[in-house]
Amino acid sequence: MGRKSLSTLQLGFCLLPYMGMRCPYCNSTDSRVTDSRPDTEDAIIRRRRVCNQCGAKFTTVERVQMRDLMVRKNSGKLEAFDREKLRRSIKLACRNRDVGDEQIEKLVTSIHRRLETETADDTVTSAMVGQMVSDSLLNLDPIAFVRFVSVYRKFSRISDFKKILAQIPADDDNANVCALPKTSLF
Ligand SMILES: [Zn+2]
Predict the structure, then answer these.
(1) Mean model confidence pLDDT for the chain
(2) How far is the CA of 60 from the centre of ligand 1 (A)?
(3) CA 88, 75, 128, 70: dihedral to nearest 10 degrees?
(4) How far is the CA of 28 from the centre of ligand 1 (A)?
(5) Sign of the dihedral through C-alpha 89, 68, 111, 161
(6) Buried b or exposed e, range 72-108, using 16+ CB within 10 angstroms
(7) What is d(CA 75, CA 156) in angstroms, rounded to the nearest whole number?
(8) Whether pLDDT at 12 is above 60
């Protein structure tokens, strides 16, 4: 008695890499890990798996999450923070720009981590998220910044664009503006 034993939760966490990950091809939960490696950022581990049923190979990603964040929308409604949604909106703003998936993933991770550390009660506002994305995109790519802000702030007039363009430093004026492929117009 008195000896500490692993709780079910701890045990589940230890066994996580070895059990129950569903194969996206045949739905079997019987797969084995063939390779595990930390990502460039140490908060992620990628595991290469092989399905024991159909032989398909796939990768799972394990990510450290400090908190279960909630986002308060402008309407007052609360919803769970959705990292994928954040990634999609940044990706959309960066479409056809010279910004790689890896850069976008890093951006999402840094924003996610800032949100986790800058709130005291697990709740952030959509305005906080929007501001962090805008600030990051302004440094990364001015065109993506303008695109994101115009959607996020629901621009409806040309004057809205004029105001936001005035925030972009003049030396960014010629930065990569020809990154749209010529064939994409028609
Ligand atoms: Zn399978």
Answers:
(1) 82
(2) 14
(3) -70
(4) 5
(5) positive
(6) eeeeeeeeebebeebbebbbebbeebebeeeebbbbb
(7) 19
(8) no
Cα–ligand 1 centroid distance for 17 (angstroms): 16
CA of 185 to the centre of ligand 1 (A): 41
How far is ligand 1, taken at its centre, from the CA of residue 50, in Å?
8
* Cα(31) to centroid(ligand 1), Å: 8
Tokens of 186: 């028609």
CA–CA separation, 24 and 29 (whole Å): 10
SS3 164: helix
Measured in residues, the chain has a length of 186
Residue 15 CA to ligand 1 centre (angstroms)? 20
Identify the weakest region by mean pLDDT among 121-135, 148-162, 165-179: 165-179
Strand 70-72 and strand 57-63: the pairing is unpaired
